[in-house]
From TrEMBL:
Coiled coil: none annotated. This is Probable nicotinate-nucleotide adenylyltransferase. Residues 15-185 form the Cytidyltransferase-like domain. Its EC number is 2.7.7.18. Belongs to the NadD family. The gene is nadD. It comes from the Bacteria. Keywords: ATP-binding, NAD, Nucleotide-binding, Nucleotidyltransferase, Pyridine nucleotide biosynthesis, Transferase. Gene3D superfamilies: HUPs (3.40.50.620). Catalyzes the reversible adenylation of nicotinate mononucleotide (NaMN) to nicotinic acid adenine dinucleotide (NaAD).
């Protein structure tokens, strides 16, 4: 699969994977904070095809999720959206995506994988977690007041010290926002204003997403 991303002269790259059903300000604030804190040249949003951990749950069509991600990220010159997981048949695994970008990027580029701290506990159950941690640094977004020691303790049970060093916490202020909450609000005719970009809000209403 080949796609045109703006990655010339880029050496520090963040990957932000997600279902993005819908993308919201929590994702955007986190990506921008990671870009600024870690001096990233680009953050590439990677909407997932079939997320292995959401099997059986109803999720919106991938083109809807892709378009919402494009709408939300378009105003930020540092943000890109990749279709790689949408074009890949079968389940989406982070390790396959990291390998794909290793090949695509300039040699010597550094990869950062941006996730919520809660999701980090799941990565230790992901496919080939050691190879993942050897190929990229994880930025784990936490809400203010989150107990990092407890997280470290839980991770130490599963990972060696060397691998644990590749997970760096980053405190962000918008952590309480979730796609689940936004879908429920739409279903119950509540307001979603300011929880996500207006363009995505309008897209949701225009396409009658999350009403049932
Ligand atoms: P859902 O409620 O459907 O699980 P979500 O809001 O968690 O959706 P995802 O698309 O599942 O969104 O998340 C993609 C990534 O973004 C994950 O790594 C997740 O931990 C992270 N994330 C989700 N919400 C936030 C938030 N408010 N702040 C920072 N990171 C977030
Ligand atoms: Mg989630």
């Amino acid at each position: 699969y080949h796609e045109e991303l703006h990655l010339q002269k880029v050496s520090r790259v963040g990957l932000m994977g997600g279902t993005f059903d819908p993308i919201h300000s929590g994702h955007l604030v986190t990506a921008e904070a990671a870009r600024s804190e870690f001096s990233l040249d680009k953050v590439i949003f990677v909407p997932s095809g079939q997320p292995p951990h959401k099997k059986g749950l109803p999720i919106s069509g991938k083109e809807f999720r892709y378009l919402m991600t494009v709408l939300a990220t378009a105003p930020n010159p540092y943000f890109e959206v990749s279709r790689v997981e949408l074009e890949r048949p079968g389940e989406s695994f982070a390790i396959d995506t990291v390998r794909y970008f290793k090949d695509l990027l300039n040699p010597g580029s550094e990869l950062y994988f941006i996730t919520g701290a809660d999701a980090i506990l799941e990565i230790v159950t992901w496919k080939e977690v050691e190879e993942l941690l050897e190929n990229c640094t994880f930025i784990a977004a936490t809400r203010p007041g989150f107990d990092l020691n407890e997280l470290r303790y839980k991770l130490l049970e599963k990972l060696t010290d060397k691998h644990l060093k590749k997970i760096i916490p980053l405190e962000v202020p918008a952590m309480a926002i979730s796609s689940t909450d936004i879908r429920n609000r739409v279903k119950n005719k509540g307001t979603i204003k300011y929880l996500l970009p207006e363009s995505v809000e309008n897209f949701i209403y225009k396409n009658e997403l999350y009403r049932t």
